[in-house]
């Protein structure tokens, strides 16, 4: 009985030890991609046309009557 239990526990430990996560290089590539996306988003939002549109939206929201 104990031998079957030991075998089951051994298989469970083996299954739990499998590496299912990302390695360091994958984390680095993910961070680089996130930073690149943030830079592009910042450039778009800080452009003159987008700032004017956002300013108009804020003005309309603040001047709305309730």
TrEMBL record:
It comes from the Bacteria. InterPro entries: DUF4244 (IPR025338). Keywords: Membrane, Transmembrane, Transmembrane helix. The chain crosses the membrane at residues 20-42. This is DUF4244 domain-containing protein. It comes from Streptomyces bangladeshensis.
